[in-house]
Every structure is written in C-alpha cells, then in structure tokens.
Amino acid sequence: MWRNGSWYGVIHMRECCANYLLNNAINSHIPLNHLPMISKPKKWTHSDGGMILLKNNFIRCNVKPLFNIDVCNLERIKNIVSQIGNVRWKINAEILDLIEYAYREGITIGNIPRKQNYDLPNGPSDMGKKNVEDIKQYYLLREEISRLNKCLISERPTFLQKIAVAKTLKNCEVIYFPHNIDFRGRMYPLSPHLHHMSDDICRSLITFHDKEEIGPRGLFWLKIHLANNFGKDKLNFEQRISWVDANLGNIKKLSENPFQHMDFWNMAEKPWQALSVSIDLTKALECPDPSKYRSNIPVQQDGTCNGLQHYAALGRDYDGGKAVNIIPSDEPQDIYTVVLEIGRLGGGISSLGGEGNSIINSSNSSSGISSSSSTAKATSPCRGELAQYCFQYDLLKRKVVKQTIMTICYGVTSVGAKDQVKGKIQNMISKVLDKNAINQLSQYIANYIFESISEIFKRAMVIKKWFNNLSKVTNELNIPVTWLSPIGLPCEQPYRLGQRILVNTPLQSVSVISYQNSLLHKNKQRLGFPPNFVHSLDASHLMMTAEKMVLENNFSFAAVHDSYWAHACNVDIMNKFIRDSFVTLYDEPILQNLYQSYQMRLGKHASRIPAPPEQGHLDVSLVRNSRYFFS
C-alpha cells in the first residue's frame, strides 16, 4: 500500500475468507487463556495469583515503575482483589437464548449487530441528468452506508466472541472472574470478552450464582433497578416505583414474549438488562410472598458523576457537593441539568424548558445576545449567531453536555471537549449547517460547559490547577509523577516517549517501540495526573467498600468503578457501606498528605511546591443521609 510517499506491507483478508471465519470458525479461535474460570482462582500472593496455570501480573502496566513493588506491603489490597475474584457467577441461559434468536432473525435491539452488511445503493442510471444536489445526496448516502459496514467489521466478531464464550460456559455450575489492578488501583477482570464491566449485552448474560431471598426491601430495589434501566434514574425513588407499578402489565408482557412488545422494550436505555430484570421482577410478583422469592440478579447503584463527587469532597466544596448528591436532598440532583440552568450562553438564551432537556428563549431572546459587560465578547456577530443556533436547533440538551461534564474532572482538553460535543450534535444539524459552522458551534458549546462547571465547582478547578503545578515541577526535574493512594497503593504514571527500534526484513522495515528506560512523556504526565489521582481515590473507595462486603460479610459483590452491585436483599447494607467508606476516606487529609509526600520526595526542591488550596466548609459526613449519593 502506497501512503505518504512510502510503500507499506499490508496483509488483507479476502471477503470470502472473512465470512467463513465469522460464520463457521469463531468458536475455535477464542484463546483459552481469555476465558473466565470454572474453578476458584488462586489467591494473589507475593509472586502470582489469579489464573491457576497462566502467569499474570498483579499490576497491569507496560512500563516497570521506578520503585520496587516487592518492598511494598500490598497484602490488604491483594486480599480484596482475590476475594472479588472469588465471587461466584453464572450464565443467564434464558437471556442467552433470546440474544441468539435476535441475532439469527436480524432484530438489532440493544447493540446486536446486523448479521449481513447493508447493501450499497446503486447509482441512478441517468446520473448525468441529475442535478448536483441529487448526486451529492447519493454519494453522502453511499459514504454513510460504507461507514456503517466498516463498523460492522469489528462489531460483529466482538459480539460473536461474547456469545461464543457464554455458550461455552452455559452449562457450567459456577464461573469466576479473577481480577488484577492497574497502576491507580482500579480493578479489572482478566477475561476480556465476557465480564460485568462490558456492555449491556454482557451484563445481561451473567448473574450471581447464589440466589438469595429478596426480603422485605428486595422488591423495592428490583423495581428501582428496572426503572434505572429504562432511563428513569433522574426521578426520585417514589416516582420510579410509581412508573414501574403503572407499567406492570407491559413489564409482564415483555418478560413473557419480548419480541412481540418491541415498542415498550425500545424505551429502555439498557434493553437487555431491562429484560433480565423484568423477568426476575415478574417471577417475584407471582410468588404468594414476594419477600421469599430467591433472586440472583445484581442490583446496581451508580454514583452521580463520581469524579466530581470526589473533587467536591477533596475541596470540601459545598455547592459542588450539593450538585452531585453528597448533601441530602428530597430530589436527586442532576449536574447535567444544573449546568444547563446556570449557563448564559451569551446571556440571551438561558431558561430551560421541560425537564431541563432543551433551551427556551428568554425575555431577551429577540436579540439573542446579552448587553452585559461580562459577556461583551459574545456580542460579535459570529458568537451571536452561534448563540441563536443553539436555540434555533434545540442543541443544549442533556445528552449533548453529559459526556463532556463527566470527563472534565478527568482532564479532557478543550479540543477533546469540542470533539465530544461535535459527535453529539453532528447528526442533529449536519443537513442545515456546514462543517465549519458545526466546528465553531461545537467549540462554543464546549467553552460554555467549561465555564459552567468552573462556576459550580470553583474549588475543584483550583485543585486541578494545583495538581498541574505539582506535575510541572516533576517534569522540570525529569521524574515521573508518583503518589500513595489512600488504600496504600504506590502509584506511578507510566507515560514515556518510547524508543523506536527499526527491524529490517526482506519485505519491509518494522518498528518496535520499547518504553523501558526511556524519557518521560511530559505532556501526558501533566495531563494525566488530575484524572489518575481521582481514579486512585475512586479505586480506594471501591476497595474499602468491597472489603466490608466480601471480606467482612461474605456477600456477593461486584463493581464497575463507580457502579456497585449486590443482591437485592443486600442493597441497603451496601449503600451504608458505600457512604461509611466515603466518609472514612475523606476523614484523612488527602491533599495535605500528598503535599507532605512531595516535600519529602523533592528535598531541596520542595519549596517549589505550593501549599494545598484552601478548603470549603462541606461536611462530608452528611453523605450518610443522602439517598441519591449512589442510587
């Protein structure tokens, strides 16, 4: 292949061969070392653990840290990770059969890919007689269908691998998912294809092995879990229960014959998990005493923009804590709606309609621009036009701002935020605005989100700036950013430039990159520190909660970073552990400890590190009474 003035060797598979492998041989091409286990994993010790025969590193990392991990006491962490790997799981055979049926019949609900590619449209026979706009639309359609087919090239095999693993383990009495951790302490299953950290399909395919009586509160939590899967998680608990009760007829019909009730099923945000819970809830309601029903469905409790929850607690930020449900409230607070509400977007288009999903013209909307001096820049014709576009095309929706708000605390850049917004609004306005206008509008909305978050989380932004000052000093001294997480894990950012080694072959030259003993990637060291430090905090919070659940009480428990799972009968006690662990975590002076560790580490350069930012007056212990902190 000729590209950029050079020839590159490419191995290309013919379509007939690809189709054969896809349809006939996929089961035989799953690496056995990537399967979940059917016997209890080995306990993590000094040298090994997890899988019995295959060696895995406890900390997954391509670059060996400068510190000697062998001298660190990680016994507490290894015990927690080992016990998480001992949680017993089972394949949900009923859901597996329904997913296979949907794929065979071409029912593409819930990310099930098409079995066949889309047919490319034939060009009109009288192409020469068509006007320019018709020809343009034809090529745009052809380009879009080609793009969808390219996506299917990866989506279809990935889906089939998951199904193949599930079919392989379908009749196993029990399966296990051994875990290890990354350099921040976040836990991950060793099995890459089928596990609870994957998509909606994978999560619906596995349940806890052990069935537990749901008890007096279990029915409540099954209903809450079902409502959450239908996207009702922004309602208060009473409204979620009312929604489920009002739809019990539809829920029963869905559980009995889902493919005959697609209209209701398509309302779900997570359709396959929603179906799994619907079946379980229907069985519970059919019992003479629902509290005696034995369920093995993992009920999930999710944090409210968890990164911002940690930032608010770090800075004792009262306003930020209120926006992310650290402070008790009768109604769940929605940070995404709060951002929309405080945004002026130039001042004229400010009030929100409906449930905070769209912009409504304010009393000054005829001009579209505020005369306020604080927004003088927005009075230029270009920015004024962008502000009007946001109103005219109804762009300021929750789904547009959500991803960017979630990733701001994890270090998303201005360019990254613009691309996120662009991905959300492109389909909404691509037919009425050109690419240049869409780019400008995306950047405009991204800037608006940054400004709004800075207004709500003032102390969080100050802390981020302080983190940047720390990484700036370590970069100048050519040492990686390191810290000790609250759970006791020494963390070192592994970002290095890499040394390129050229290996010549008769066909071409092959580049091999080695990261050992290479120079620091200073930009990644700087950008990565704020999100990685916060990830180490949420990992510590998770481990502290897991310690109470699996080590002290032997409950079945799983988590996906900021989503914690338990049996319906144990959700109340899990919620108590979540909040208690969060309070315990922030009883420690985390920023002061980080500052002192850098004072000791940098020695004569310690004076270059500024003192930690001043904290606010948020009482983190209030979270114990917050219903919607995790919900």
Topology at a glance:
Blueprint: E1 2-3, E2 6-7, H1 15-24, E3 59-60, H2 75-85, E4 89-91, H3 93-104, H4 132-169, E5 179-182, E6 187-189, H5 200-205, E7 206-208, E8 212-213, H6 215-229, H7 237-246, H8 248-256, H9 262-265, H10 271-286, E9 294-295, E10 299-302, H11 306-314, H12 318-323, H13 335-342, E11 352-353, E12 358-359, H14 381-392, H15 398-408, H16 414-429, H17 435-456, H18 458-476, E13 482-484, E14 490-492, E15 499-504, E16 509-514, H19 522-552, E17 557-559, E18 563-566, H20 571-587, H21 590-602
Parallel strand pairs: 3-5
Antiparallel strand pairs: 1-2, 4-7, 5-6, 8-9, 10-18, 11-12, 13-14, 15-16, 17-18
Helix pairs in contact: 2-19, 6-7, 6-10, 8-10, 11-19, 13-15, 14-17, 15-16, 15-17, 16-17, 17-18, 18-19, 19-20
Approximately how much beta-strand content do the residues carry? 5-15%
Stretches where pLDDT falls below 50 for ≥5 residues? Answer: 344-381
In terms of structural class, how would the helical and strand content be classed? Answer: mainly alpha
Mean pLDDT: 86
Could you describe the largest sheet, including whether it forms a barrel? Answer: 3 strands, mixed
Rg is 27 Å
Number of helices: 21
Q: Report the span from N to C terminus.
A: 53 Å
Q: Tell me, briefly, the overall form.
A: globular
Helix content: 40-55%
What's the β-strand tally? Answer: 18
Largest sheet: spatial strand order: 3-5-6
Function: DNA-dependent RNA polymerase catalyzes the transcription of DNA into RNA using the four ribonucleoside triphosphates as substrates.
Pfam families: RNA_pol, RPOL_N
GO molecular function: DNA binding; DNA-directed RNA polymerase activity
EC number: 2.7.7.6
